[in-house]
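Action item from last meeting closed. Structure (444 res):
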């Protein structure tokens, strides 16, 4: 079986590589010539555990190819995945320019039946636009070629994308014909042998499923952060509250961890796009607008705590920052809370010394030399007035507290991920502040 994946960003590269891993011949296409040349040489543009090794292995086996020419990849191809970016437009809607540009290229180049599958996260109605765009190009060519369009949204977690693709919770596919269903069943057979479900539905429902899933997860995060902020005020412990409500099987424990807000490539963009879709239909998504508001405020909560601790005077304070990426196991800085914190601290007159295991180069590309990048987590602590914990990388979980206290000018920690025990930090002599626990109150 031969397929083409157009777009070598996060979704496209993971998709193409994982299909190649199960024996399918895959060509990944991108307009970026430098990126394609790098990929041919095994240079992967993103950090994702296990991806580089898998790319190199499948290049060596001849199952994974890279090209800048869509037309050349369509010969004998059965399925084309569109996995290009859909960045937020100025009004929050998903920009479909790249999706429709690719659709035009397919319509101009295809010479036999194709199943065109949207893998990018796209609003309801996009598959219809893709179908119309391809048909216009075929009509211009006076070419009578049959094709189908389907929707196959991705549900990949950054940092665990390989496992998520190879061992999916579910595979959602929206389609319109029996032929398309037969092809998709064949394509995904290697991933369903262990009982992972294929869920077929109409195309608009599949498109909506992706947005609804991300909106629900974002809602849980903002809800728990709202509860955490109230817990601090009333003297409750959000960690205990989280365990209490998470034990209810109707709620469950996932995505109930309080913190400093969600970021990344999906939640912020998809929540905005769903709100915009509703507005275009004259419907007001009140809950999701509140989710956005809570998340925006939550990204500043650590700054506010530090500002209060130093009685409003942050001039010339040195802030140690552990973690920069929006979550562990990725170098993705899109909508990362750290970017908000960096701007707030720098504008207040602070110096920032930061360490992240993989995201420092990407941060430097975005922010330049606003902050200093350190060789390790302890190097960042030297003469620091406080530590701000931003990303919960595993190597930060059990630090050497004696070394920390010796290096810091003042032993104050502001933990945005609640990875340390309140009483343990107090016993070690630290001023310790986290999310959802009033640490000035005696705790159990």
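Sequence:
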């Amino acid at each position: 079986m031969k397929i083409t994946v157009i777009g070598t960003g996060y979704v496209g590269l993971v998709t193409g590589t994982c299909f190649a891993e199960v024996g399918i011949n895959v060509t990944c296409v991108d307009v970026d010539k430098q990126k394609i040349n790098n990929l041919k040489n095994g240079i992967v543009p993103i950090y994702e555990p296990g991806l580089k090794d898998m790319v190199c292995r499948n290049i060596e086996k001849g199952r994974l190819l890279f090209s800048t020419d869509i037309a050349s990849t369509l010969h004998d191809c059965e399925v084309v995945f569109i996995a290009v970016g859909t960045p937020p437009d100025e009004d929050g809607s998903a920009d479909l320019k790249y999706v429709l540009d690719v659709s035009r290229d397919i319509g101009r180049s295809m010479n036999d039946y194709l199943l065109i599958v949207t893998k990018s996260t796209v609003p309801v109605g996009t598959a219809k636009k893709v179908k119309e765009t391809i048909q216009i190009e075929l009509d211009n060519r006076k070419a009578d070629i049959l094709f189908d369009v389907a929707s196959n949204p991705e549900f990949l977690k950054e940092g665990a994308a390989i496992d998520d693709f190879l061992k999916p919770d579910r595979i959602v596919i929206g389609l319109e014909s029996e032929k398309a269903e037969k092809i998709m069943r064949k394509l995904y057979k290697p991933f369903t042998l262990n009982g992972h479900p294929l869920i077929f539905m109409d195309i608009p429902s599949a498109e909506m499923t992706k947005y609804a899933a991300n909106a629900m997860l974002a809602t849980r995060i903002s809800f728990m952060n709202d509860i955490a902020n109230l817990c601090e005020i009333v003297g409750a412990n959000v960690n205990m509250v989280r365990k209490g409500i998470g034990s209810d099987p109707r709620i469950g424990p996932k995505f109930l961890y309080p913190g400093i807000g969600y970021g990344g490539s999906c939640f912020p963009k998809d929540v905005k796009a769903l709100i915009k879709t509703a507005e275009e239909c004259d419907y007001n998504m009140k809950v999701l607008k509140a989710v956005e508001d809570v998340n925006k405020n939550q990204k500043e909560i650590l700054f506010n705590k530090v500002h209060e601790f130093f009685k409003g005077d942050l001039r010339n304070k040195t802030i140690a920052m552990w973690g920069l990426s929006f979550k562990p196991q990725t170098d993705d800085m899109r909508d990362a809370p750290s970017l908000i914190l960096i701007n707030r601290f720098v504008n207040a007159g602070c110096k920032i010394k930061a360490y992240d295991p993989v995201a420092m180069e990407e941060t430097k590309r975005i922010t330049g030399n606003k902050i200093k990048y350190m060789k390790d987590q302890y190097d960042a602590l030297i003469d620091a007035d406080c530590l701000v914990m931003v990303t919960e990388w595993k190597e930060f979980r059990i630090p050497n507290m004696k070394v920390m206290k010796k290096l810091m000018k003042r032993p104050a920690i502001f933990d945005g991920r609640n990875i340390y025990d309140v009483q343990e930090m107090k016993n070690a002599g630290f001023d310790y502040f986290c999310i959802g626990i009033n640490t000035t109150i005696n705790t159990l």
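Note appended to the action item: The chain has a mean pLDDT of 95.
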